Amino acid sequence: MSDTTKFLQSLELDMVKEFVRICDKHGLNYFMAGGTFLGAVRHKGFIPWDDDVDMGMYRHDYDIFLKIAETELSYPYKIQTYKNANSHHYYFSHIVDMRYKVKRLGSLDQREEYVWIDIFPYDGLPNGFLGNIFYLRLLFCRFCYHMAHFDKINIARTDRVIWQKILLKILFIFYKIVKFDKKKWVDKIDMLLKSNNIENCDRVMSFMGVKLQKEILPRKIYDNLTNYSFEDIELKGPKQFDVVLHQMYGEYMKLPPENKRISHPMEIINSMPVNN
Questions:
Q1: Cα separation of 30 and 237, whole Å?
Q2: Given CA atoms 153, 155, 156, 162 in this order, what sign does their dihedral have?
Q3: What's the angle, vertex CA 27, arms to CA 23 and CA 13, rounded to 5?
Q4: Do 207 and 129 contact (CB within 8 A), yes or no?
Q5: Going by C-beta distance under 8 Å and a sequence separation of 6 or more, which residues neighbour residue 223?
Q6: Pairing of strands 112-125, 93-104
Q7: What distance in Å separates the CA atoms of residue 195 and residue 38, rounded to the nearest whole number?
Q8: What is the C-alpha separation between 272 and 7, in angstroms, rounded?
Q9: pLDDT tens digit string along 24-63?
Q10: Measuring CA to CA, which residue among 253, 238, 245 is closest to residue 215?
Q11: Which positions ≥6 away from 59 have C-beta within 8 Å?
């Protein structure tokens, strides 16, 4: 593990603790997602080479959390959404540490961002054929959303297969010719995702997650949570961890080869606290 990764993980763990404090105080449910959940099961903490944290919440709790966090979080922490920060191009939200910034190196736009953890909303997916049509509508909106933010896409990811690399080159040409309205498509995604009552759906999804259809799982999976050790704390996650992780990662207990142990390409550009 590099010194940079170790330092980032320490900052992120402190943000996770603050996130959990607020959720527990206000009776909001949350659960680990993505690589954070994999890390808890396989490593009882961070994946050693990972520099990211993914937390999930059902839409109702997520929306409440965003409102509460505006006042509950205090310096150096802040909630950042596409609605309250023009520089925030993600649909999902971040808790950020305003003392430290990193320079993102993996995209066309080598931007500066505060150190962050991801907070993902989980939404209901209607059952049956109509649900599949609904998902296709969402995929079209996601395509347009990503085209509007093409310069922010991490084109340096080493885990992309050859067809993805070819497609990105073709889409780059398309991006230069056709202009997509950023606000239009993120608002469209937001409207569609909020249109379904999760209580009426048998399936839930983190639609903006990187695994696409692999992020769609039976709702009962996320209705049944338990505690897992994560570094020096305990965090909630689905009790049926094998179902979630096998769908998302396959043989998840097997370590990937060293050349696949990737992290976000970035560098810390200011590592000293700054004034509020």
A1: 8
A2: positive
A3: 20
A4: no
A5: none
A6: antiparallel
A7: 30
A8: 12
A9: 999 999 999 999 999 999 999 999 999 899 999 999 999 9
A10: 245
A11: 121, 122, 123, 124, 193, 194, 198
Is residue 124 packed enough to be buried (19+ CB in 10 Å), middle (13-18) or exposed (0-12)?
buried
Amino acid identity of 165? K
| Strand spans (E) along the chain | 31-32, 54-58, 77-80, 93-104, 112-125, 203-205, 216-218, 225-230, 233-238, 266-270
pLDDT tens digits along 211-247: 999 999 999 999 999 999 999 999 999 999 999 999 9
Tokens of 164: 């993805």
Measure CA 203 to chain center.
Answer: 19
Residue pair 75/98 in contact by the 8 Å Cβ criterion = yes
Q: Which residues of the chain have pLDDT under 70?
A: 1, 104-110, 151-161, 163-165, 167-178, 264-266, 270-276
**Arithmetic mean of pLDDT over the chain:** 88
Three-state secondary structure of 89-126: CCCCEEEEEEEEEEEECCCCCCCEEEEEEEEEEEEEEC
**What's the Cα-to-Cα distance from 240 to each of 37, 41, 42, rounded to whole Å?**
12, 11, 14
